[in-house]
Amino acid sequence: MKQANMAATTNSTMDISTTIAGILNEKHRPEHLQVLKTCTAALQDKEYRDVVEKQAFSSLLQVLSQLCDELQAASIDDQDLQSVTLQLQLTAECFRAQRNSCVQSTRNQCLLRELGFIDVSIKLLNLLQTINMADRDGIFEPLRCGIQFLGNLAVGNQMCKDDIWQLSFPDLLLQLLSVADEKAVNYASMVLHTCLDEAKVEELSEPQNIQLALRVMDLCRTQPELDWTVIIATQHFLKSSALVENMYSGMSEHERVTLLELLFAQLREEDSENCGIPSSVARFLASTFQKGCGAVLTLATGSASSDEVLQEALTVISLLDVLCELTSDNRQFVFLQDHPDLLVTTVDLLEQVHAIGKASKNVFSAAQNFSSLSGDEDSSSHSPVISFKAHLIRLIGNLCYSNTNNQNKVRELEGIPLILDNCNIDSNNPFISQWSIFAIRNLLENNTQNQELVAKLERHGTADYSALKELGFLVEERDGSLLLKTVRKDS
User: Fold this and answer.
1) Inter-residue contact 393 to 436 (CB < 8 Å)
2) DSSP symbol at 462
3) Alpha-carbon distance 388 to 165, whole Å?
4) Three-state secondary structure of 411-450
5) Considering only CA atoms, which of 254, 252, 232 is closest in space to residue 243?
6) Contacts (Cβ under 8 Å, ≥6 apart) of 344
7) In terms of Cα–Cα distance, which of 334, 351, 367 is closest to 414?
8) How many whole angstroms separate alpha carbon 212 and alpha carbon 196?
């Protein structure tokens, strides 16, 4: 019975090979479309795929090449429109047959590569984008099928990946990611993801190729429902410091925020120790924050009416969020505690923001408007700097964790009374009192000088006693000296 099935399959492959070859000697007609559909359907069957002869693929390639030549020579006028429409349908069906033949078949992938399918298919994908027809679906159908074919051809086959990359990078891939068809763009993203490896990512970082990477990031922002682009960014782009730096310099502020949001999400994954983000990327982000953080201060003056200025400030806010995650209980990035002047910059910025907020009513001023947090107010009325000051304090606390030099530096910069002054509830900075308590705890741990300073501040009434009590400390005078005594927090 099994032998009979194999014989029937072999006869079927010979029949289809002969039938496809017959198309080459006739003027295209609708019946030919049915012949190709029969071939496509047959190639869905694994048993058939495994025994299809090389001659059948050779005949299919000849049909594809003939269609490519005919479409190149065609002029889209009323007289020729019907034949062009049929040629496009036949092209789509050829691509479907090719796509099906590659499914879980290394043998067929290698056969199609050896015969020259990649070159002809890519030539057709370039050509399809130049055809000007009112019925765009007639163009998109073969385009989608052709891109899917490249994707199936590349899966698990390094030689096919390299050939596709060589013939399509960067121009065709960029064009396909810019097609006005969401499905085609999604399939093109899949092809790019399948072909990418560490070496190809480094090629992307070169100035002449950076537009392709920027297009992927733009799609992450404008079409977040396209999973492949987000996967490309998180699994490939964020692991290359050269690419991250070159993309960042070429991005709009909107795009920078998208990049930083993806970085933030990657860091929030459970296994953050193996998030794949290089140390050099963390250093780059810290330096970028230091250089540009002053932009956020413009929000207090009303100049935020300019969208450009507002977006620049929002980028700083996103940078701060990422730095908080990088330095939060993540030993991989502990070196940021020693990043030159990062702590000084953060304390200085907190001091400026705090002073500006106290000087007049502005976005940095403390507020007691908790209805906005409960969702009772329109979100457009929310401050653009929600939690900014709280996160500055959080970053200071992170940078001082088990780091005596940084503990001392904050004291020398007079940052301790500054943080204690922020132990109050503020609706513009949810949890600011908790982050302040956390920072003070890290500043006092095993640091006698900082403990003595806080005790003196409390004695003179300049420290918030409730904050110290939250930390479990009570000021006690002994032999003329002030000490911080540990007490139960519920006492």
Assistant:
1) yes
2) -
3) 44
4) HHCCHHHHHHCCCCCCCCCCCHHHHHHHHHHHHHCCCHHH
5) 232
6) 409, 413
7) 351
8) 13
Looking at 306-387, list the stretches that DSSP marks H as alpha helix, in order from N- to C-terminal side: 307-326, 342-359
CA-to-CA distance for 254 and 280, rounded, in angstroms?
23
Q: Which of 125, 243, 388 is nearest to 234 (CA)?
A: 243
**Peptide bond just before 384 cis, omega within 30 deg:** no
| DSSP one-letter code for 45 | S
**pLDDT per position as a tens digit, 144-168:** 999 999 999 999 999 999 999 999 9
Integer CA distances (angstroms), 204 to 199, 271, 488, in order:
9, 27, 58
Tell me the two tokens of residue 302: 């009303």
What value, to the nearest 5°, has the Cα angle with vertex 95 and ends 94 and 101? 95
- The position carrying tokens 């036949």 is 90
What amino acid occupies position 120? V
In this predicted structure, the answer to whether residue 489 has a pLDDT above a threshold of 80 is no
Count of beta carbons in the 10 Å neighbourhood of residue 350: 22
Q: What are phi and psi of 433, to 5 degrees?
A: -65, -40
CB 321 within 8 A of CB 262: no
Q: Cα 124 vs. chain centroid, distance in angstroms?
A: 30
- Count Cβ neighbours within 10 Å for each residue of 81-103 and write b for 16 or more, e otherwise: beebebbbbbbbbbbbbbbbbbe
Percent of the chain exceeding pLDDT 90 equals 68
Measured CA to CA, the distance from residue 7 to residue 48 in angstroms comes to: 11
Spatial separation of the C-alpha atoms in residues 486 and 491, rounded to whole Å: 11
**Mean pLDDT of the residues in the chain:** 87
The average pLDDT across 300-322 equals: 84
DSSP 270-328: TTGGG----HHHHHHHHHHHHHHGGGGGGGGTTGGGSHHHHHHHHHHHHHHHHHHHHTS
- Distances, alpha carbon 188 to alpha carbons 15, 73, 108, 228, 379, in Å: 34, 26, 21, 9, 36
What tokens appear for 243 in the block?
A: 């690419």
Which tokens belong to 291? 């250089």
Q: Which of 12, 117, 132, 136 is nearest to 65 (CA)?
A: 117
Contacts of 364 (CB under 8 A, 6+ apart): 299, 300, 353, 354, 356, 357, 385, 388, 389, 428
* pTM for the full predicted model: 0.86
